């Protein structure tokens, strides 16, 4: 009886949490094409102002890779009304924090301020858009910053080039084939006019979404937005005609030697569809089934029972145009990489031919329900989600109903995506090896 009462109370609490999770928002367009999303939450006196631009590494000239990430740094240099080096001082002196990040698909800037400084956040982001100062001293300064970041996070980091090597071999036509941080040689070769042209093309209001979330007075914030962003001229429409990949029909084999590692790794990577496709959600659930936690299939088999691996993982890396599904393993001792791959392949074949158990399926559903409840636990997270769902998925409402897609995924769907995408003739096998003195 106690068990049943506990189950019932857990169910009711879970349903209440899901109901309480719903995010209310308002969205509209300015005359210049900028999309605006407002979310009011007066539970704490903080506000996030953020702007996401639909520009990422995939929008770069193949001979000038790294521009999108470079601009993430460059546009903190200063504006006509914010002196060089003063951006961060203004933010911190007003009790705020800020950051930015870049992917292959978009660039995102945000500030978190006490709510009485919402106008300051809006002014600063409008300054970044309308009055950026792009000059040689800023380019030279940020070039050194990016070089140091690459040395720290990529060149001198164990396994730091792993994803870049996967992308290079898995994509032959699409610009996902190069690393988001790009080429330092390309940045060194670029002239000032090229940076200005990149800014003029992509940093326009009609290629951006502005989100203001938190303790706000909606009518007052709307007036501020119109004052600061309304006068910014509309730019030329950004059009994309990116090349499509030819389907992989036979296994691609590659090797890479990393001077920063002592333990080799094996990666099997498969090209998968956009994160907007329903299949991408099923692949998310499959990766969780295979390797999320110590009770997962691959961890339990290869790390706990057979003791063949130090680490094993299945991950679904979804992006706007294509995704990457990857199996990754670090062998224990002298276990051959080929043996590790064979053991992982064996589990893929099982999923392709047998439905996962009802018990495992329910565990997956519970896990994704919990992720949904926790996904927007902060104003900062809500702002990011609202921008991302609007810009990259074309559906802001996913912030509230994406869980319905996961709920609709069946055991048969999980089996079917394994059969459709995870075949040996459709993949890259990368041996990621230590570099020896003679290499």
UniProtKB/TrEMBL annotation:
It holds the Pfam family Peptidase_M16. Residues 192-367 form the Peptidase M16 C-terminal domain. Residues 36-176 form the Peptidase M16 N-terminal domain. Gene3D superfamilies: Metalloenzyme, LuxS/M16 peptidase-like. GO terms for molecular function: metal ion binding; metallopeptidase activity. GO terms for biological process: proteolysis. PANTHER family: NARDILYSIN (PTHR43690), NON-CATALYTIC MEMBER OF PEPTIDASE SUBFAMILY M16B-RELATED (PTHR43690:SF35). This is Peptidase M16. It comes from Mangrovimonas yunxiaonensis.
């Amino acid at each position: 009886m106690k068990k049943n009462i506990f189950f019932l109370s857990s169910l009711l609490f879970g349903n209440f949490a899901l109901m309480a999770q719903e995010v209310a928002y308002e969205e509209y367009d300015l005359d210049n094409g900028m999309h605006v999303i407002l979310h009011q939450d007066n539970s704490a006196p903080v506000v996030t102002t953020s702007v996401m631009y639909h520009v990422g590494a995939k929008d770069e000239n193949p001979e000038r890779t790294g521009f999108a990430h470079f601009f993430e740094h460059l546009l903190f240099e200063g504006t006509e009304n914010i002196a060089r080096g003063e951006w961060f001082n203004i933010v911190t002196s007003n009790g705020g924090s800020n950051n930015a990040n870049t992917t292959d698909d978009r660039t995102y800037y945000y500030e978190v301020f006490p709510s009485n400084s919402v106008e300051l956040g809006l002014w600063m982001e409008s300054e970044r858009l309308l009055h950026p100062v792009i000059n040689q001293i800023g380019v030279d300064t940020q070039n050194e910053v990016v070089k140091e970041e690459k040395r720290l996070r990529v060149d001198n980091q164990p396994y730091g080039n792993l994803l870049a090597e996967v992308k290079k071999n898995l994509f032959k036509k699409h610009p996902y084939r190069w690393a988001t941080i790009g080429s330092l040689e390309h940045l060194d070769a670029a002239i000032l006019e090229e940076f200005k042209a990149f800014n003029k093309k992509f940093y326009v209001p009609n290629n951006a979404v502005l989100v203001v979330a938190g303790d706000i007075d909606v009518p007052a914030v709307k007036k501020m937005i119109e004052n600061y962003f309304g006068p910014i001229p509309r730019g030329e429409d950004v059009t994309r005609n990116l090349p499509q990949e030819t389907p992989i029909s036979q296994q691609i084999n590659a090797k890479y030697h990393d001077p920063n590692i002592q333990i080799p790794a094996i990666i099997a990577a498969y090209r998968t569809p956009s994160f907007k496709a329903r299949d991408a959600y099923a692949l998310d659930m499959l990766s969780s089934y295979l390797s999320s936690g110590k009770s997962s299939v691959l961890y339990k088999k290869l790390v706990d029972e057979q003791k063949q691996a130090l680490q094993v993982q299945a991950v679904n890396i979804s992006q706007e145009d294509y995704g990457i599904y990857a199996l990754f393993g670090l062998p224990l001792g002298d276990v051959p990489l080929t043996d590790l791959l064979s053991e992982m392949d064996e589990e893929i074949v099982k999923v392709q031919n047998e439905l996962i158990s009802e018990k495992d399926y329910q565990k997956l559903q519970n896990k994704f329900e919990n992720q949904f409840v926790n996904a927007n636990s902060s104003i900062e997270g809500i702002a990011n989600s609202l921008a991302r769902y609007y810009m990259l998925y074309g559906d802001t409402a996913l912030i509230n109903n994406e869980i319905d897609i996961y709920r609709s995924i069946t055991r048969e769907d999980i089996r079917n995506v394994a059969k459709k995408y995870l075949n040996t003739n459709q993949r890259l096998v990368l041996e990621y090896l230590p570099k020896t003195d003679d290499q």
